[in-house]
């Protein structure tokens, strides 16, 4: 049985493809000398189950040591029916620095552990023939490298977990025509009741046309066509009649299907894909963020997407669905997808279940982006490059309601422009350039460096509700709690607050594990409650302080599950229950002040 065999790209689907998950040859190359030692020309010394990283149990390797480089090798037969087409080799994610060969000829390189890349292997992929694919993944534990919550030290500690090396998402082959459709950008326009479709093409040919059909559960809604021979990215508007208009929301996550076809001058369909879209708007009204013109308090949970057996890779598609359903059962209506770019199928399930998410980049790994004593650990242009790849991949998902490129950037403002200033500005501007429809938070917590950014926030793990309430009372006077301020505000880590929508994007983290054994590593924020009743009381009071603040548009509670030694989740690491979920849910479901 092929693991994780479901289609990996649900918002851009072709019918013909070949999943390459399963058993591959594998070898650890601890000295990163494998190319010199001939690993490209010989069989490797063990086997691994792709797409699970070698640190995971599901991979069959379960090696938690530093793995400076790893090699993969597999022979694949190219389907005979793929004649006269280009053959693309897709990697959904490889951590961190990948080189790919086909029959010992290099076909691609990519740096970045969270974003997908593609190699064109047409020259070697004769239909009916066998090809040998070899992949080397370098993953140094030394900085600088965006790695999210992966450990730089040997083992996990505090809020940092184990490493993920090499292939950790699906590998697959796809045939495409010589003139082909590329990934579209689908923009909902609620005001004008229309989807705006931008459809990039691989190249143009005389007489070609683009056709798009919008459908709902009752069949065709509208069909539109345009010329596809004079522009590399033709645009089509798909207007929705009033009697077929249905907005996407948390209460009714309605999705329209879209069929996109490329037609040649003789009327033959050259390429066709299916996609989907949700008609919803996002707006800022004072301190409120509105969805479809209505304030919706964002009851978010911090979701880090770790699994006991798969680490950053969900063991099954059902596990992705279950995590969303568990969150919703606890009363949350969305999540900060924290320090990890989640796989596309998670976003697909969020789209269809009406689950709000903030897209985030896994930026940690460079000394939290700029401590002045760590000059050699500063981030570079690769942060912005990889962030742009993420934005391009995820632009069209209706469940994404905001972008957050950075997390807990720690550096005081001085009279000098720093690398942190450049990277924060660059990643913010990249998001705004790629997407004008969603708000962007320049960094979650600590060093806000973009004046007049769309959103402002803080992290506050204060466990005493009275102190917590006092800290956030100033928001009513445009004087919110800001991480890093001295009491007299003579030293600041952030540009001033300018009246933007504000939320506490991390709070809670209440440490609770009644099953912890003496001597076992267990960690959470602040003082542990002495009883489960004390936990419920603290959880309710912290949530209600934010829910009852008319100037607060949302919150994000830490966190969905325990992860290794960090035991402050709503659920245990294996997703079993820790609490009475009715009580957790009831603490959150009352109408928020901003909704009232």
TrEMBL record:
Pfam families xrefs: Glyco_hydro_2, Glyco_hydro_2_C, Glyco_hydro_2_N
Recorded superkingdom: Bacteria
Residue ranges occupied by any Glycoside hydrolase family 2 catalytic domain in the UniProt entry: 285-444
Alphabetized InterPro entries for the sequence: Beta-gal/glucu_dom_sf (IPR036156), Galactose-bd-like_sf (IPR008979), GH (IPR017853), GH2_Domain-Containing (IPR051913), Glyco_hydro_2_cat (IPR006103), Glyco_hydro_2_N (IPR006104), Ig-like_fold (IPR013783), Ig-like_GH2 (IPR006102)
Keyword Transferase among UniProt keywords: no
Annotated Glycoside hydrolase family 2 immunoglobulin-like beta-sandwich domain residues: 184-280
Gene Ontology terms for molecular function: hydrolase activity, hydrolyzing O-glycosyl compounds
GO terms classed as biological process: carbohydrate metabolic process
Keywords (A to Z) from UniProt: Glycosidase, Hydrolase
Family to which the UniProt record says this protein belongs: Belongs to the glycosyl hydrolase 2 family.
Protein name as catalogued: Beta-galactosidase
Organism listed in the record: Phototrophicus methaneseepsis
């Amino acid at each position: 049985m092929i693991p994780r065999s479901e289609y990996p790209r649900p918002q851009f689907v072709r019918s013909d493809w070949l999943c390459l998950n399963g058993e591959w040859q594998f070898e650890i190359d601890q000295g990163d000398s494998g190319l010199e030692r001939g690993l490209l020309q010989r069989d490797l010394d063990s086997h691994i189950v792709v797409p699970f990283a070698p640190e995971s149990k599901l991979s069959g390797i379960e090696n938690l040591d530093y793995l400076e480089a790893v090699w993969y090798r597999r022979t694949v037969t190219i389907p005979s029916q793929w004649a006269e087409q280009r053959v693309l080799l897709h990697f959904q994610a490889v951590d961190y620095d990948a080189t790919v060969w086909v029959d010992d000829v290099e076909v691609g390189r990519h740096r970045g552990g969270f974003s997908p890349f593609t190699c064109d292997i047409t020259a070697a992929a004769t239909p009916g023939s066998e090809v040998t694919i070899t992949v080397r993944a370098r993953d140094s534990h030394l900085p600088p490298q965006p790695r999210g919550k992966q450990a730089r030290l040997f083992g996990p500690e505090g809020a940092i977990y184990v490493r993920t090396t090499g292939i950790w998402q699906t590998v697959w082959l796809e045939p495409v025509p010589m003139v082909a459709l590329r990934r579209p950008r689908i923009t909902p326009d609620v005001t004008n009741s229309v989807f705006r479709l931008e459809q990039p093409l691989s190249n143009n040919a005389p007489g070609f046309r683009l056709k798009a059909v919008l459908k709902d559960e009752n069949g065709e809604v509208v069909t539109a066509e345009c010329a596809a021979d004079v522009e590399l990215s033709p645009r089509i508007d798909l207007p929705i009649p009033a009697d077929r208009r249905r907005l996407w929301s948390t209460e009714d996550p309605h999705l329209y299907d879209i069929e996109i076809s490329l037609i040649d001058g003789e009327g033959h369909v050259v390429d066709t894909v299916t996609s989907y879209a949700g008609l919803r708007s996002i707006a800022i009204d004072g301190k409120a963020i509105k969805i479809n013109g209505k304030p919706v308090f964002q009851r978010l949970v911090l979701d880090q997407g770790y699994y006991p057996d798969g680490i950053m890779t969900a063991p099954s598609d059902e596990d992705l669905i279950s995590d969303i359903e568990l969150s919703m059962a606890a009363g949350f209506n969305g999540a900060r997808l924290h320090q990890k770019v989640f796989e596309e199928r998670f976003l697909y399930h969020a789209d269809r279940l009406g689950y709000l998410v903030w897209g985030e980049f896994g930026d940690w790994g460079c000394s939290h982006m700029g401590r002045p004593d760590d000059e050699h650990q500063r981030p570079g242009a690769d942060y912005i490059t990889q962030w742009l790849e993420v934005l391009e991949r995820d632009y069209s998902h209706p469940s994404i309601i905001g972008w957050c490129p950075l997390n807990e950037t720690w550096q005081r403002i001085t009279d000098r422009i720093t690398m942190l200033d450049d990277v924060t500005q660059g990643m913010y501007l990249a998001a705004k350039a790629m997407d004008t429809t969603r708000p962007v938070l320049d960094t979650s917590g600590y060093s806000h460096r973009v004046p007049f950014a769309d959103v402002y926030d803080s992290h506050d793990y204060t466990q005493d509700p009275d102190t917590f309430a006092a800290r956030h009372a100033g928001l009513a006077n445009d004087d919110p709690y800001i991480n890093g301020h001295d009491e007299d505000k003579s030293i600041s880590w952030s540009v001033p607050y300018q009246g933007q929508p504000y939320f506490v994007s991390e709070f809670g983290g209440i440490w609770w594990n009644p099953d912890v054994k003496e001597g076992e590593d267990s960690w959470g924020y602040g003082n542990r409650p002495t009883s489960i009743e004390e936990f419920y009381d603290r959880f309710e009071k912290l949530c209600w302080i934010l829910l009852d603040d008319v100037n607060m548009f949302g919150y994000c509670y830490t966190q969905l599950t325990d992860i290794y030694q960090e035991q402050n989740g709503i659920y245990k690491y294996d997703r079993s229950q820790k609490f009475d979920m009715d009580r957790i849910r009831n603490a959150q479901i009352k109408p928020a002040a901003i909704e009232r």
